[in-house]
Amino acid sequence: MISLTDSQKIGMGLTGFGVFFLFFGMILFFDKALLAIGNILFVAGLAFVIGLERTFRFFFQKHKMKATSFFLGGVFVVLIGWPIIGVVLEIYGFFLLFRGFFPVVVGFIRRIPVLGSILNLPLISAPS
């Protein structure tokens, strides 16, 4: 079992609530207030989980500046009141920021019993 510090536990909670509010805000036709709360909680939770210094180092690497600009720009656009445009910018920035983690996540999901068998179907799996 992974041992977490108290600040990491708080960060997991903040991140979880952030994802919940983002999802709920999209379900309720891009509610500005819920999306803004979700964005703030998600970014704050990320800072608590990996630490403030590592969060800044992650977001402000030279080769990730475009992705960071789209993600944080999307957060800002949601906060000023244009939720649909902001969410589109955030999603694009999110995929650019975390594209290196997606193969790891897919490899992990392939080991889960039901989901792994779905991902290994011939139409879905990539040819080796």
From TrEMBL:
Segments spanning the bilayer are 12-30, 36-56, 68-85
Tell me the superkingdom of the source: Eukaryota
Name the UniProt key words of this record, in alphabetical order: Golgi apparatus, Membrane, Transmembrane, Transmembrane helix
How does the entry describe its membrane topology? Multi-pass membrane protein
Q: Which GO terms describe its cellular component?
A: cytosol; endoplasmic reticulum; Golgi membrane
- Supply the Pfam families for this chain: Got1 (PF04178)
Subcellular location, record wording: Golgi apparatus membrane
Q: Mind telling me which InterPro entries this protein's record contains?
A: Got1, Vesicle_transpt_Got1/SFT2
**Biological-process GO terms, alphabetical:** endoplasmic reticulum to Golgi vesicle-mediated transport; retrograde transport, endosome to Golgi
Q: Which family does it belong to?
A: Belongs to the GOT1 family.
Outline what the protein does: May be involved in fusion of ER-derived transport vesicles with the Golgi complex.
Name of the molecule in the record: Golgi transport 1Ba
